[in-house]
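Researcher: Please translate sequence to structure tokens.
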Amino acid sequence: MKKIHKKIYPFKQAMGFSLIEMIVALGIFSILIIIALGTFVNVIQLSNKTKNKEQITNQSRFIMELLSREIGTGSSFALQTPGETSLCPREANSGRSIEGWCLLLQNQGSFQISFYRDGDGILYRRSNGENILEEPLNGTESVVKVTRFDIILSEKDNKEYLTFILGILSKRDENQKQIFFETTIAGRSYNNF
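Model: Translation complete:
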């Protein structure tokens, strides 16, 4: 019988990746990472937009609720439209007054309340003659673009209703569209100052 000699290699052939296989694998892995990062960035941006809209909505809801409460429990009111400057005093001791729209009302606690635009925001001013509290109603992250008051006389019940329109947007998101809110409020009685 003949002996069949097998060639014996001193080294076993290593089972590994060739250079071409490694480059293809890195290419596929890179594409997957880019897709995953793009998706992650889009999710973060969408989350930020949602938070901005939620913040604007909450600020607007707070402004509307405060207006509704003060007007609904107030006993008298006056409305200053843009172009007038005589109705709402800015500072009690100085002759300076607010320009533009202003809603001035008397509440049950004999406080004089005024709401007015000041730059990018709405200010709330509460005075009892001696003490004055003045604070912004919207945060520094939002801009009030449209504010309008209308007084409507209802023919059904011969009552006056105050309609308030608020347009607000976020300073953070310049591409965001303006959000509008509108409410109509009926007070107990409207006796002008």
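Researcher: Any highlights?
Model: The first strand starts at residue 76 and ends at 80.
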